[in-house]
């Protein structure tokens, strides 16, 4: 009876082990891919808004009603959200809601009026951007809602909930800076030159 040399048997065994490891690795990768495919996309909350166009005055009324399940942006597990609104592409008319402190489900019920001639509606896009207010640094962008107005039927009032889109990079410095001047200690003011002044900075909510 012929026997397989020891060296050959070891090689065959080693090859089998390598094949087994490769098969296990393939199954793991396939499982990971399947799990990733089954994962739902990130959720950034949703926003409830209303739109109504007045054909007589050529004004678009946009009401920010409320937000739901906004992500927590602060260490305390909460956010201080507000919504900024403007019309693309000009961005000349800008509005923003009040800040709702420590709230992931804020209620606003604030209405803003945009002057838009009816024959220009089809070329405009409404932007609603949700920010988390930060007193000491740049406000965090939670996400946004982009609504081309040519897709809206203005035959009656629009009343909808929409999911917030993932945040995009700021290219135009739309986010406000926090009230940095409020955080300047009195000692820093005293160090200024006698020719300079350190006026009391009252909190002002302004657009950049």
Automatic annotation (TrEMBL):
Region (Disordered): 1-39
Repeat recorded as keyword: yes
Any single biological process term in GO: calcium ion-regulated exocytosis of neurotransmitter
Keyword match Translocase: no
Spans through the membrane: none
UniProt cross-references to SMART domains, sorted A to Z: C2
Keywords: Repeat
Name of the protein this chain belongs to: C2 domain-containing protein
Species assigned in the record: Plectus sambesii
Lineage: Eukaryota, Metazoa, Ecdysozoa, Nematoda, Chromadorea
